[in-house]
What we know:
The structure is a single chain. The protein has helices at 49-64, 93-103, 118-123, 133-147, 165-175, 222-234; strands spanning 2-5, 16-20, 26-30, 39-43, 69-73, 110-113, 127-130, 155-159, 180-187, 193-199, 210-218, 239-247, 260-264, 276-279. By secondary structure, the protein is of the alpha/beta class. The longest helix is centred in the first third of the chain and has 16 residues, at 49-64.
Amino acid sequence: xxxxxxxxxxxxxxxxxxxxxxxxxxxxxxxxxxxxxxxxxxxxxxxxxxxxxxxxxxxxxxxxxxxxxxxxxxxxxxxxxxxxxxxxxxxxxxxxxxxxxxxxxxxxxxxxxxxxxxxxxxxxxxxxxxxxxxxxxxxxxxxxxxxxxxxxxxxxxxxxxxxxxxxxxxxxxxxxxxxxxxxxxxxxxxxxxxxxxxxxxxxxxxxxxxxxxxxxxxxxxxxxxxxxxxxxxxxxxxxxxxxxxxxxxxxxxxxxxxxxxxxxxxxxxxxxxxxxxxxxxxx
Length: 283
């Protein structure tokens, strides 16, 4: 199936042009080659309503050109963490704002990489989720190549909280890594982290181990900074690696006490860091 890739500088598949009007409107013109296609897939970063506007314009243009089946692949899904109504006077962003708009476009399939919440699956029509086992295996292979090229990798998997356990257990089962520790954090009424602890950390007796934290999203990175501080305090010789599917990095990089960060290319970035490794996820 041919793609229409809306990622900047990644015009694979169908050719197109984006027009921007003085009032802020965006529009898209797709190459006439699409007239002969039975199906196509739109690929988009989907981090803003501007991305959503282009998704809709592209979908409607393809359908008006006669493409019968149009699918959507958004590795990152806007509002993925807003999966409930957090307080009175607000909305359930996923359930009542974003998903209904996507559903109105009648996509043949909507594919999301490592969705944060089951609400996305419940609310999206024709949903398909992609797990991150391939990403995790690439991370662990690179960790071995970087730090342990001539020996078995002394790696400890870290689940940052109970919410990530299902993902990390799946990684553990696939990779057969024996050691796993589980983080937890307390927050105040404003949502600020007040205390972080890691269950099982004291039981790990592996010198020069690399602790690999797996999670789906890194926003500012405070959760991972606090986890790294706890690990470093207990294990002074530890190396800390963070592997997140979607790296927003709104506070920038590097993250203090974290030696290396891995992420996919699901988010468009305008900065570089020597401590960052980006692994391709655009199929």
